[in-house]
Amino acid sequence: MIRIKDIAKQAGVSPTTVSNVIHGNYNKVSEKTVQRIEKLLTETEYVPSMGAMMLAGGSSRIIGVLVGEPEGEKYGREGYAFSNVLIRSIESEIYKRNYYMLLHFTPDPEEGIQFAVTWNVEGLITLGLHTKSNTMIQVKGKAPLVSIDTYYEKQGIANVGLDDLGGGYLMTEYLLECGHRKIAFLSDNDVGVDHERWKGVCLAYEKRMGDTAGVRHIIIPGERTKRKHFYQEYLAQIAKAEDALFFASDYYAAEAVVRLRDLGIYVPEDISVAGFDDSEAARLCRPRLTTIHQDIVRKGKDAVKKLFQLIDGEPNISVSDQLPISLVVRDSVKNMQNI
Amino acid sequence: MIRIKDIAKQAGVSPTTVSNVIHGNYNKVSEKTVQRIEKLLTETEYVPSMGAMMLAGGSSRIIGVLVGEPEGEKYGREGYAFSNVLIRSIESEIYKRNYYMLLHFTPDPEEGIQFAVTWNVEGLITLGLHTKSNTMIQVKGKAPLVSIDTYYEKQGIANVGLDDLGGGYLMTEYLLECGHRKIAFLSDNDVGVDHERWKGVCLAYEKRMGDTAGVRHIIIPGERTKRKHFYQEYLAQIAKAEDALFFASDYYAAEAVVRLRDLGIYVPEDISVAGFDDSEAARLCRPRLTTIHQDIVRKGKDAVKKLFQLIDGEPNISVSDQLPISLVVRDSVKNMQNI
DNA sequence: ATGAAAGCGCTAACAA
DNA sequence: TTGTTAGCGCTTTCAT
User: Does the structure show a pLDDT above 90 at B1?
Assistant: First the structure.
């Protein structure tokens, strides 16, 4: 391993000068020395020792990314494609800034804090953690924190999320336009993101119909096999009672389309189905899913961007971003008006 | 931040003693002191400074995980569910051993090496990297390396993979049993994993039929929209020419089922389709996919296990592991014998 | 069983 | 513009 000291000796200068060149403090070093040292740096394939940097400078160049798994095996193991795209996007943005991503999966905030302190992370991004957990990390940890898709009572923690309420609203508005009156919103919980979407559903329905009598929220099991049993017991009667089923994710919607078909109920002829996310599942499903589009890659990018604004101490940072959503009309919702 | 020095002062001992307690060198410290110090350690919520450890001890407790993206947008963005499950499994195993996972996405071996050296990683796991890239990292990097799903000309680099050849063999054997004679194997490349699977196809076919005249390998585009165009142009005629289509992944198989249906070709009535992986897509597809099962979580676990065997310098480590596969019969392959 | 002291590679305050 | 120096928190030899 080649050290700054070695470079300094070869160049006949002091370590400080080399350090200055490395960090681009060109105003402190003469043109010539810069060139000479930079040449040596590449020739010798100098690589910094992060341990020493962490110790001496107090800067680790590490961004910790904490991923919770609130619902355990939610979506079955492979429904996590969502977080995978997000993680790729986040890592790519972090790396671009010459930082590194230390990734840990845990729902436990204490574990998260310890993780962050141990590595002296310069910032933290969390996803899939509860409101409380994020708050605890924010309070006890000293690193800047940006959460993704979390809602807070009082503003205060930086978050990048979605216009979830708007998504629920937009889809419901569309379903109503298509003539559907009995609408069920199905999700595996009623907090945070899904709660907002449900609020959007109610809002749109009430605006158009004057009340929320025709709409209901059905909580389905997050665990795959439990959900399967739930559907075996209730799906037929749910389908009978509703005009349209609006799911909180495309994955759930695609799965339901298949389960309905197994029951001899066809989408959209017998019942309409809508999803959320505009994921691959929506395009692969037949009928192709009408859904709400969101840009996951951008979510990751924006989270990293906001985190670095926080790290750089920029003023006037918006605490909470709500990325836009849009309606994607495909084939899973029947337009009753055209009949 | 509380340091060893602080603990030492409070306990009235030297830093050395505290360090010994932390590292479980109990033979060097008296029973009493151990207890007193351990109590202090938890009370004060002592957290080690990794920077100092890296610098002083030379051990980073970091495992680098390198993920390549050889095919760019292969599978569309969200088909990466596979690597997501793997990454979770790997991280969990690493963390259990009190190590940490630094994750970086890059197809470039040079970048990977620099990454590893910068952080002085104690070991490296790679997935989705080319044979050459892994070899380069092995040669130039000094950290132990375990690759996943890579094949090498000469043995030498530790790898955890699958019995891919066996998988191709098993499925083809089954397709033949079902009476299919014209079989196409479809994948987006012909190296490594997919090449082995194809070899298995040929082997099984030749064993049963005496030659490989009825079997062919079709390379489909890895990029989603290109694949779409490819199918628009050729899928109908491919379907006409074959009895069964055996895809290198469930994702591709599920997608093809849908595209075929769009063309009015029904699975399995008009043509049989088989997948590989036994992923969520296989269960969600209708008809449910007949496929080859593999245990991705175990793949991750085994890779980490092997890496630590390497790190610990254990003797007699198998260089290359091939995890078992099994045939999962569902509904996408028609049994012609029963008609 | 315990402690003193040197040093890992780097940064940053201060001097020159 | 360049150099000197004193740590950062920890491990590790070597004394005691």
Answer: no
CA distance B106 to A303: 21
Q: Give chain A residues 31-50 with Cβ within 7 A of strand D.
A: 32-33
Q: Taking CA atoms, what residue in A is nearest to B53? A: A51
Chain A positions in Cβ-Cβ contact with residue B282 (cut-off 8 Å): none
DSSP letter for A24, please.
T
Q: How far apart are CA A146 and CA A141, in angstroms?
A: 12
pLDDT tens per residue, range B17-53: 999 999 988 988 899 899 999 999 999 989 999 999 9
What chain B residue is nearest to A116 in terms of C-alpha separation? B47
- Which CATH superfamily, name and number, covers B62-162+296-322? Response regulator (3.40.50.2300)
Stretch A131-159: mean pLDDT: 92
- Find which nucleotide's C1' atom is closest to A3's CA: C9
Residues of B (46-85) placing their beta carbon closer than 7 angstroms to any atom of strand D are 48-49, 51-53, 55-57
What is the overall mean pLDDT for chain B?
A: 92
Tell the residue number behind the tokens 């001992």, with chain if given: B13
Beta bridge partners of A158: A146
Integer Cα distance of B120 and B293 in angstroms: 37
Cβ contacts of B54 on chain A, cutoff 8 Å? 49-52, 54-55
- Pick out residues 53-92 of chain A having their CB under 7 A from any atom of nucleic acid strand C: 53, 55-59
Residues A149 and A82 sit within 8 Å (Cβ to Cβ): no
Coil, helix or strand for B255?
helix
Mean pLDDT of chain A: 92
Give B72's pLDDT tier (boundaries 50, 70, 90).
Answer: very low
Which residues does chain B have within 8 Å of residue A81's beta carbon, measured at their own beta carbons? 78-81, 84
Contact call for residues B220 and B252 (beta carbons, < 8 A): yes
Cis bond upstream, residue A70 (ω within 30) = no
A205 HSE (CA, 13 A, CB side): 24
State residue A141's pLDDT score. 83
Q: Taking residues A269-287, report their average pLDDT.
A: 94
What pLDDT shows up at residue B75? 45
The C1' atom of C13 and the CA atom of B59 lie apart, in whole Å, by 30
CB atoms within 10 A of CB A31: 8
Domains B62-162+296-322 and B164-294+327-338 share a fold: yes
Q: Sketch the domain layout of chain B as residue ranges.
A: 62-162+296-322, 164-294+327-338
Contact between chains at B80 and A88 (C-beta distance less than 8 A): yes
The CATH code that applies to domain A164-294+327-338 is: 3.40.50.2300
Q: Which of A281, A214, A213, A295 is nearest to A247 (CA)?
A: A281
Residues B253 and B248: their CA atoms lie apart, in Å, by 8
Name which of A71, A48, A63, A47 is nearest A101 in CA terms.
Answer: A63
Nearest to B102 among A55, A100, A258 (CB): A100
Instruction: Report the amino acid identity of residue A220.
Output: I
pLDDT tens for residues A298-310? 999 999 999 999 9
